[in-house]
Protein 1
Amino acid sequence: MHESADITATFVHADDVPWQHVRTQMHADGQKSVREKWFVIGREPPFLSMYGTWDPGMIVHRHGHYSHQVVYVLGGGMWSGERWCPAGTHIDLPFGAAIGPLVAGPDGVELFEVMMGDPRSWEADRDGFHELLAERGITALPNPPVQLPEWLEDKRSDHA
């Protein structure tokens, strides 16, 4: 393959990307959130690279994405089902694979993620998620609004 003048690299610094609150819950000790910085949301080919932080104890339902996904735990840690994923854990999720439920550890969790395909998610276990929230006295709050490209419909309200 050769270099093309029409193809250039994109450079983005995390400080220049706004935080998006993508999930919120009310816990006994206050509101908890998942926040993400979306570095690139590509259309052709579909692609997302992002940095995320989760407050301690934040729970995300068992789900998958309409893409191949790579997750790298940068800091803190999280539970994926019964498996503890500390900083340094690399998770490879082929298209069609589900993960979770995901529970941020006592220090929260920091993640770098790449989705190679449509980054939107599908729900894998709604009843189990609601049972887990009830067991822990957690209330899921409405999804906060996010800024997506006009060509990408927000489908988070389609599931928990």
Protein 2
Amino acid sequence: MDLTQLANLGEFVGGVAVLITLVYLAVQLRQSNEMAKANAIHRAVNTWSAERRMRIDDSMSGVLAKAHSDESLSRKEEIQLRGYLSELTYSSWAAYTNKRFAANAKRIAPDAVARQIGSSAAWREAWTEIDAELRDHDLGEFADLVNQRIGTLSQ
């Protein structure tokens, strides 16, 4: 075997090694994407679950009932209401942005927030701060959808 044949053999082996590396990286990338999707679903479900736990908590359920009936809220209750609405909003946003959820999550998620906000003045007041927070974090598109739904539901 002369030097040219060895060079050709080395080039062939190098090409095969590059091809094997590319296939390996493609498999790794696919697995990484699947893990990221599974983690996103897990996070979205956890946030919905946290919102549900907040809703059934004794002290929180009283605040929610007062907010729905437009009874005056203490400062502490206003803070609790905003915390609850923030949790609901971010869990809805997580579902909205997660492609693994049903296609109708694009419609349902903003509606879930809008239904709460449209139910009373206390909710709308709490929403003004959450709306600003969303816009500060580049989530204005979701805030706009919620605001559109509020307008639609109030008509």
